[in-house]
Amino acid sequence: MALYLALFRGINVSGKNIIKMESLRKQMEHTGYTNVQTYIQSGNVVFEAKQTSKAEISAAIESLIKKEYAYDITVFVLDMADMNKVAVKSPYATREELEEGSKKLYVTFLSQVPQKENIQKLYDAPIGDDLIELKDDILYFKLASKASDSKLSNNLIESKLKLKATTRNWNTTIKLLAMLEKSKK
Fold first, then answer.
1. Cβ contact 150:128 at 8 Å
2. 39: CATH
3. Is residue 72 domain-shared with residue 91, that is, in the same domain?
4. Distances from the Cα of 18 to the Cαs of 21, 74, 86, in angstroms?
5. pTM of the predicted model, to two decimals?
6. Measured between alpha carbons, how far is 33 from 30 in angstroms, rounded to an integer?
């Protein structure tokens, strides 16, 4: 069995696409995934699977969500190597640096590496003093102020890059990596 992390795009946000994590955990176990653990309500699941293709696992979980909850949700499936890469490549924080108080550091997971012309569209977007840096299929950003003041949103990122994205704050990203490491032992 291989260990994975699934990040669900757009569930339990602003009262839309509501899925209770306990229900999701049970549905995934019923489908054959094991050692299923959820973290907070925004759709983060660590689990083991017999399959080794992240694309196949993603498609299977998306199908499960469609069948059980009638939502068209994009699911990003990552493994330990992917998450270690995310932590190491961050230009704004190290793995050991967790934010105190207001959260300003974020990681956006992209469905693929964006095309060059679309990358430039994102860099040209009116995002004020917020900082962004793209590394392969991961966008890191550091907000100048609080998230509610920022023009940098998941919708803006998706519209400029022309692909699907899901965003987690730095603390959540590091917590999910720690959950993977703990589950591997």
1. yes
2. 3.30.70.1280
3. no
4. 9, 14, 28
5. 0.93
6. 7
Burial (CB count within 10 angstroms: exposed 0-12, middle 13-18, buried 19+), residue 16: exposed
Say yes or no: 99 and 163 in one domain: yes
pLDDT tens-digit series, residues 12-33: 776 678 889 899 999 999 999 9
Query: Do 174 and 116 sit in the same domain of this protein?
Result: yes
Same domain, 61 and 102: no
CATH number for 125: 3.30.70
Q: Whole-angstrom Cα distance, residue 5 to residue 9?
A: 13
Q: What tokens does 43 get?
A: 């759709």
Tell me how far the alpha carbon of residue 29 is from its chain's centroid.
21
**Is residue 9 domain-shared with residue 70, that is, in the same domain?**
yes
pLDDT digits (tens, 9 = 90+) for 116-143: 999 999 999 999 999 999 999 999 999 9
Q: Which of 172, 184, 181 is nearest to 7 (CA)?
A: 172
Cα–Cα distance, 45 to 91 (Å, whole number)? 26
Tokens of 176: 């999910």
Please give the residue range of the domain that contains residue 22: 2-78
